[in-house]
Design a protein that fits this description.
This protein is mostly helical and 210 residues long. Helix content is 72%, strand content 4%. A two-stranded antiparallel sheet has the order 1-2. α2 (23-58) packs across α3 (77-92), α2 runs parallel beside α5 and α5 (124-159) crosses α6 (165-183). The two termini are 21 Å apart.
């Protein structure tokens, strides 16, 4: 992608002859900047994956896994479903255009002959916190519903001991999770939209700070 953008980005006038031995450090700096931007771009999907995992675990669907070739790992079906919706929303909102815009602006925000301010990494904990918060917001409707279902099943188990609550609750939790997921899907899409904008702003803020 960087090679495609190279003809249209502003040139700094810096030549290879003028770099000397600094070319190794500058190359390492460019690799570090690229890794950071790629990580920030992936944060949105990290949050969606974590939210899907929380839902699958609370609904008892953690063992229903499929292979995801994009991540070269097995993921839960709920996580795969949420990531698919997030990917479609990402493309529908021209998220790939935002990514390309951010990559093009990175050549201006992080010039080749400039260093990287290490102070920008002091907020890395806040970045991880935002991912956890987004995952909890995404999974909150289903997790709250399953919590109340477990409370109700516990009360039923005390009132009617003849009912095998352990076996019955699994099917009840699964049905409750499916119903809440369908009902909350429009709100979930709106939350995806909000989180995508938030992480895009975070990426541009990070580039300006560098």
């Amino acid at each position: 992608v960087a090679m495609v953008l190279f003809p249209v980005i502003p040139k700094t006038g810096l030549t290879v002859e003028g770099l000397g031995q600094d070319i190794i450090w500058l190359a390492a700096k460019e690799v570090l900047a690229g890794v950071c931007l790629g990580f920030l771009t992936r944060l949105f999907f990290f949050a969606v994956s974590a939210g899907g995992n929380l839902i699958a675990t609370s609904a008892g669907l953690a063992n229903a896994q499929i292979f995801n070739p994009a991540m070269a790992a097995t993921v839960t079906t709920v996580e795969s479903f949420y990531v698919a919706i997030a990917t479609l929303l990402f493309l529908a909102m021209n998220g790939h255009h935002i990514f390309l815009t951010g990559l093009a602006q990175s050549f201006e925000s992080i010039p080749l002959n400039a260093g990287i301010d290490i102070a920008v990494f002091k907020d890395s904990g806040l970045i991880l916190q935002s991912v956890v918060e987004a995952a909890i917001k995404i999974s909150a409707p289903v997790m709250v519903a399953i919590f109340f279902m477990n409370v109700a099943m516990g009360i039923i188990g005390r009132v009617v001991p003849q009912i095998n609550v352990l076996v019955t609750s699994q099917a009840v939790n699964f049905m409750a999770a499916m119903v809440v997921m369908i009902i909350a899907l429009p709100a979930m899409v709106m939350e995806f939209d909000h989180q995508m904008v938030s992480f895009a702003e975070l990426m541009f803020k990070f580039m300006r700070a560098m």
